[in-house]
Amino acid sequence: MTSNNNNLQISFVHSRYRNEDVAICVLVDVSARVKMEESLQEMAAAAEQASQSKSMFLATVSHELRTPLYGIIGNLDLLQTKALPQGVDRLVNAMNNSSGLLLKIISDILDFSKIESEQLKIEPP
Length: 125
Prior knowledge:
By secondary structure, the chain is an alpha+beta fold.
């Protein structure tokens, strides 16, 4: 690095030319490349931070959605044990199926966020 903060790359070659020893020295200003590399490192760090924030957000939202959904599913399960009029029991059954599918989607999102943040643990059956 020079006194004015330029980064220089020095290449030196020693050889013979017309029966004489010669030395060739080349100075290349690599300041732009160094700045570009630093910028890329900063962008990579920012992208990693954004990815972690997204994963944390997905995990939090998934947990927040699952908690009330468990209450809905539990109450629908209780309703299915009661003698209900024919039209109502079909509606309760449809709501129970839909809430089960929604729970599956939310669980998949939570698993995805765990995979992204490398927190998913696979246990043998």
